[in-house]
Amino acid sequence: MANEEDDPIIQEIDVFLARSLLEKLYLFQYPIRPASMTYDDVTHLSAKIKPKQQKVELEMAIDTLNPNYCRSKGEQIALNVDGTCTDETSTYSSKLMDKQTFCSSQAASNVSRYAAAVYKKGELHLTPLHGILQLRPSFTYLDKADAKHREREAANEGGDSSQDEAEDDVKQITVRFSRPETEQARQRRVQSYEFLQKRQAEEHWVHLHYYGLKDSRSEHERQYLFSQGHGLAENTELIKSPSEYLMMLMPPSVEEENDKPMAPSNVLSMAQLRTLPLADQIKILMKNVKVMPFANLMSLLGSGTDPTAVLRCVQQVALLVQGNWVVKSDVLYPKDTSSPHSGVPAEVLCRGRDFVMWKFTQDRWVVRKEVAAVTKLCPEDVKDFLEHMSVARINKGWEFMLPYDEDFVKKHPDIVQRQQMLWMGIQAKLEKVYNLLKEHSTPKKQEAQSARPLLVSGEQRVNMAKAKVKQNYGQLEKELQKQKAEMKSSDTSAKTDLPNIRIKEEPGGREEPMDTSAHGEGLNNGLVNGLHPAQGPPEPLNGHLPGGCIDRVAQELKAFVSSTFKKQFVLTLSELKRLFNLHLASLPPGHTLFSGISDKMLQDMVLDTGCKQILVPFPPQTAASPDELKVYALWEAGDTYDQHRQVLLEIFSKNYRVRRNVIQSQLSQECGEDLNKQEVDRVLK
């Protein structure tokens, strides 16, 4: 109370809010003017503005007759800028620096709390500001002077020789073709400083007309700073309670959205990630991490997640390499995309990256030059592949970034077996595309051993040796008993005459299981994707399956062969084996087909399902493998083109390369009807 008595209210002033110049009023902050530019004698020669950027450029005249103006300095500046000649393009037509340009910059990003006030006859009129601009001198004329100086130096060094002019006319031109721009590259370009500067430069200047302080138009515009009506209806913003008024004066400190750090569009927090379905969570994690052990993946998915469901989902987006999961190539390079480095389509990139992943299933080390030589891709793409899953070591190559996960391989042998089948199919495809030599597809023995580094103590080695001796002794004992049993059975059969029983003996003594790759022997020498050959599917006893399984295996195999040939009609043995391996990889563990299918069983089943082997006379110098030379075709499919297809197959049984017109005439002659182009194309397809 004492303080209020010491500071009594002297006068009460009515406050009004003027709206006539709302969103039109700017405050210009000029720099301190030199003595030669007093406020009264300053003349605005021109003014222009870019409304979107709130950028203003003013050109003001300088009083050259002022005693504080240095005339010699002004002449020197004009000479440096324009040179000796004077024309329309000259900056200073009077050969004297008689004007100065000012450019604006925003003094504050948020001006909602600022207003211009006018006091008149006991009333205070407020007009909100739309912007506060600081004007600073522009020195672009110095850039022009430097350009003139460089032009004069170039002219002095050029000379007047006609020979030099003739040589200057011939110039080498480099032509470059722009690569397809990806979405990420486009976003980086749009956010770059150069792009923003270009967009700002594209906005056109709006030229303004300047009115002086004492001009009648200026007097008229100043009247808009006063409120046009004093009624309460027009000033409801000023009728506030004390608490509301205080809130307007001191608003709470709320951080603006544009000041908050924005996360990239491709980044999700763990809280956001766990709101997605499990399959999407695993896909996003694998796409970002690229290589991950199964234990780490389970820890990121949170407690309570079913490991079986995770295993089912992770196999859709990743492949197993040395016991660790590596994201599939088609997840990183979707269809209809291309390389940001070379513009190569996604299909070629996926093939190259699959080759790198497959090499890491054979060995812990990969040489970059070897990958580039096989895939024929640019060094940047190859480096991207290797950085996804390996680390560069000096003078050694690229090493797989994670250690061999032996725990996962032991706990999930069925998953490992299925992944091995997938890799066999991928290997066959890569061998066909890249024409891999044997040294590429067959790992060395020491390399295969290095893919599974283990530290073994002396005591462990002794125990392993003892176990190996016991195992070998047991196998030798079984072999001896087996030979005795065979000798006894052969003696008995020689003495007993059974005319109704025919025993078919094969020269090999034992039917070999089907070779599922072009270099099966090389693959069995070492670890393939963490699976030792001893951990593979059980082999049939004495080359034959148990009696109860024969019918089921035959039915399953016949169903696969029938459905495959109804889709493809013509297949080589190599391609049929590749499709069979893919079919095995899609089957659940313990399926009857895992009991072991030999090449002979597969070929016999092909012939039993109505197919025939076409003896195509390939040239003797062909580089194809024996399995690629065996061609099987569906002889009768039950459609209208059976007769045409049989004629076509007979044609190819006589020659491996035939002209189209010969095929069309032969079909017309044998079938007794003229086939049009579409029908011939359908038969050939």
UniProtKB/TrEMBL annotation:
Keywords for this entry?
Answer: Coiled coil
The record's InterPro entries line, in alphabetical order, gives: RNA_pol_III_Rpc5, RPC5_C
Write the signal peptide boundaries: none
Name the Pfam families for this protein: RPC5 (PF04801), RPC5_C (PF19725)
Coiled-coil residue windows: 466-493
User: Which biological process terms from the Gene Ontology are attached to this UniProt entry?
Assistant: tRNA transcription by RNA polymerase III
UniProt biased composition (Basic and acidic residues): 146-155
Alphabetized PANTHER family for the sequence? DNA-DIRECTED RNA POLYMERASE III SUBUNIT RPC5, DNA-DIRECTED RNA POLYMERASES III 80 KDA POLYPEPTIDE RNA POLYMERASE III SUBUNIT 5
Output this protein's name: RPC5 polymerase
Q: What is the lineage of its organism?
A: Eukaryota, Metazoa, Chordata, Craniata, Vertebrata
